[in-house]
Amino acid sequence: MRKFNRIVVLDRIILLEKQWEQLRSCATEVIEFSGLKPNEMLQILQQEMAEDPKPMCWTQLAQEKITIEELNRRIAGADTIITCWTDIPEDVVIANPQLKYIGFWTNLAGHRINLELAKQRGIFVTLIPDYGTDSVAELTFAGMLAVSRKLLRSHRNTLRGKWPYELLKTGQYVPKVDEIPQKILRDKVLGIVGLGRIGRRVAEIGLAFRMNVQYWSKNRHPTWEKVGLKFATLDELFSSSDIISIHLSPYAPPKIINEELIRKMKDGAIFINTSAGILVDQEALFQELGSKRIFAYLDVYEGLPPRKVLNNISTFDNVFTYRSGWYTQEAITYKGDYLLRNIKNFLKGIPQPAAWDHQTTDEEDIIEFQCVRSGGK
Prior knowledge:
α7 packs across α10 (197-208). α6 (115-120) links the parallel β4 and β5. Strands 8-7-6-9-10-11-12 form a 7-stranded parallel beta sheet, with helices on both faces. Strands 2-1-3-4-5 form a 5-stranded parallel beta sheet. 37% of the residues lie in helices and 13% in strands. It has 377 residues and is α/β, with parallel strands linked by helices. Residues 354-377 have low confidence and may be disordered. The two termini are 13 Å apart. The protein has helices spanning 17-24, 38-51, 58-61, 68-74, 90-95, 115-120, 133-148, 151-159, 164-169, 197-208, 222-226, 234-240, 259-263, 282-290, 307-312, 329-347, and strands at 4-9, 27-32, 80-83, 101-104, 124-126, 189-193, 212-216, 230-231, 243-246, 270-273, 295-298, 319-320.
């Protein structure tokens, strides 16, 4: 297997030590840039929030602000770039004719590089479209169960020495059935918005829980409808679902889940978002959560988690995490393995369909791979 001349890793990525060893074996030289240090990121965050309180997330901060001149200096002589957060401007692509391969340690890159220009310049670009499907889908149900079974409430009561079962057992408090907040998932209507890889996995698990699963997506899926899923419009889905789970691409229209849809939700319904915060009218959602009419499990937000707002919303029956969906040992391992597989296939002269990207409103369209290939191998 031939080798690259020089691989430049432009920002901080996570690889196992054995994966780093494999990467180093693929080139004569590997140069690593670690990007911003944590304290530098915090300083920039505080400064930018003071100047402009617009929503911002860690993915934006991780993008080191470097000049085109500095970027050209870093990749001088490199035939390969590996990156996650760093933008590759058109001027940089044009100024570096020696580039043959760019590997993104992420699943989306259309906002980081002009893929068509890369193709014209003979640069092979690869992404990692699927590494956290099971991680995100499983966390979706972890949140769903935590909210529907009121696990935080039970946890806190147990720590405080307060056990409702003992009150029931001794006859001190015998609630009516509709006063019991805990509910099971079976027979509940699960509405899935976006039937891409993760949405389909959530549907599979929902069916295993014997839930009634309906979905909305840009395209109908007759195969899934044959196994029990029901297609619904967004209006129908929001007004009839007991639980709604968002699984759209970040490229979907901002605030596609608008105030009108949120207000259509049934009383007591659960809203789940492990997809992208920008897709939801966050202010409208928080207003409904504050009224305690609906409940939520949220792992993403429009920017960083608004702690003051979340503290004002009762967390007694809601669950809030931040970007925990993909973050598992397995997903990190898969991500590194897929990155290395893409690189090795290229070096062997048998590259697989390379750059998966899309500007659609649904993750399912990722099936239609956009392959950015060089003129030769």
